[in-house]
Amino acid sequence: MTSGNHSKLTFWGGTGLVTGANFLLEIENTNAKPLRILVDCGFVQGGSDSHELNAKNFSYDPRSIDILFITHAHLDHVGKIPKLVKDGFKGVIYSTSMTRELAQVILEDAAKLLMREAGNNPKNVIYNEEDILSAMRLWKDMPYHTKTEIGSGVSVYLKDAGHILGSTMYEFSRNGRNIVFTGDLGNSPDLLLPDTEKITDANYLVMESVYGDRNHESKEDRRAKFIRIVKENIARKGVLVIPAFSLERTQIVLYELDEMIERKDIPAVPVYLDSPMAIRVTEIYRRAMPEGFNEGVKKDFASGDDIFKFPDLRFTLTTDESKAILHAPNPKIIIAGSGMSNGGRVIHHEKNYLPDPNNTLLMMGYEAVGTLGRELMDGAKNVNIMGENVEVRARVENIQGYSGHKDSDHLIAFVEDTHETVEKVFCVMGEPKSSLFLVQRLRDYVGVNAMMPKLGDSFDLNF
Ligand SMILES: [Zn+2]
Predict the structure, then answer these.
(1) Percent of all residues in the chain with a pLDDT value above 70, rounded to a whole number
(2) Could you say which of 38, 149, 282, 403 has the lowest number of CB atoms within 10 Å?
(3) CB neighbourhood size of 456 (10 A)
């Protein structure tokens, strides 16, 4: 007897919201209980209610889930895994090996933050390091480009998403029908990573839409703009503060600065990587080399060039080293987390340097609503940092071209590759205006059935 062709897809997170990815696929079986799989289990980030949302119990029984698939190691895709395990999940967690390694660093960092948010009271914390270790024990590696049977006649195949090191799309297949979860989709061609692989035979597509409503500046423009900002800042003997996401963006920024210095596009200038987590992640990137990287990086690696190292680059691991940066002579560049300025060392630098018009704050990524980064990007002239009113007189610049996400045109092109087979596109992981704009463009230009699901919405799929 063949398996039934019915499945139910429920959106338990990441709808009308960039963060909090959590999708439940229940695959029916004629003779057995359904196979229940989750794709991603991430934190909501940014909003004032995010801690509350992350602490909330799951809307399903974690004990009933058979397998959890993780697309990549960003916190909004992995943050809630230890809670899932703490609440009873006993299945298997799958991802690429690079995602597993990076996720452990990201989760350990998150646990520290959670402890602070809980007022250092272990009773109030969402999860602790023990729960992370329990999760890591359930975690298994799955390689790219290998078909794996997962039961109920379902197989899974991993394709590179080109978003961060180890990022993958999951293509689930049964009886010739395919459903693809994209996770986040890379801004290919990327400086470090291989291009996002094509999807050509999806019947259902659950895709990200963070930049669904806008395009990035071109790769040439972003580089020229970065060079201009660095040069102007050096000329003014100012401090250039770059809030950077520890995972991927920091490595991209280091790679680009290394290239600029090598090509003499900019004069040598001291660069401080002031983030213990970014330093740890950079070490993982270095260890993973050359696997998982694009051909250009592989070539650099083969020729002995360490792309994450240049003469004036300093890693400031300890708090004392971090504090000492203040006394180092200008001009200088400081790269520090968090990327959205909602914590981490960067807020100390922002407090110190924002009042001086000779300094520059350069934002290079998505800034969630409700974060200090978003306020600054939106042009705030006064901000509150650690309880103090800080006047913003520094230049505030913004380059979105280094985003790790596809822009609107490239999201459209991605769907076009599979327009002949696709029956429904679910646009998720975007603010409503981005997701809805992409939905409209997909309907108008690609002629596909696209929609933005709401939190808790369920759909019957022919799968
Ligand atoms: Zn991501």
Answers:
(1) 99
(2) 149
(3) 11
- Quote the tokens at residue 279: 């330093």
What gap in Å lies between CA 322 and CA 459, rounded to an integer?
A: 50
The parent domain of residue 275 ranges over: 219-398
Please give the distance, rounded to the nearest whole angstrom, from the Cα atom of residue 97 to the centre of ligand 1: 16
For residue 281, the domain's CATH number is 3.40.50.10890
Question: What distance in angstroms lies between residue 52's CA and the mean position of ligand 1's atoms?
Answer: 22
Average of per-residue pLDDT across 191-219: 96
Q: Count of domains in the chain?
A: 2
**How many CA atoms does the CB half-sphere of 19 hold within 13 Å?**
23
Mean pLDDT of 334-348: 93
Expressed in angstroms and rounded, the spacing between residue 349 Cα and the centre of ligand 1 is 25
Judgement on whether residues 341 and 250 belong to the same structural domain of the protein: yes
pTM: 0.92
For residue 246, tell me if it sits in a domain: yes
Query: Does 74 share its domain with 200?
Result: yes
Q: How far is the CA of 190 from the centre of ligand 1 (A)?
A: 14
- Please give the distance, rounded to the nearest whole angstrom, from the Cα atom of residue 74 to the centre of ligand 1: 5
